[in-house]
Amino acid sequence: MSSRSTQILEAAARVIARRGVRGLRVEELAAEAGVSTGLIYYHFKDRTGILRHTLEFINDRAERYTTQRDPDAEPLSAREELDEVLLLELQDTPEVRENSSAWGELRASAVFDPVLREDLARATLIWVQEVAALLGRVQPMAPAATLAAAAERLTALLEGLSMRWLSGGIAIDHARTLLREAVDVELASLNRP
User: pTM for this structure?
Assistant: First the structure.
């Protein structure tokens, strides 16, 4: 992706996080990105294109900050990797705050937008599958359907905890503790016959 496209998508994530999808105006996006509205339409065709690409952008960015590790660091156990990937979604950094806020805004808008709904469903499915694979590394004998259900619950909980934290409903440390406890509960249920 060109640097201009990336610049526009970074600005789109900021605007959506601050103002919501309904508050996304191409003129404001252009000002935020420091580009012309024509350039935005050139790269993304229309508002739907902007939203779809912004969703991909925030997914890619989340994948980067949840999987990037120091190559010289000790390898993590399967359980440690599972915890780290989930807990890195609850970091008090501008990038994570922005990503999580934009994701929540896109999810809320998908209720009324079938195109966005399909894209979000696909992105969510990929995320659930990734968490199910991590759970499967911790509990390799668990049935695939059971792993998928556990991953569905954990990712849904994580989204809810993230929104409560971001909106000031709970402290980040409490959100992280609740998530760790939920992982413990899910792993214990995978151990049962």
Answer: 0.91
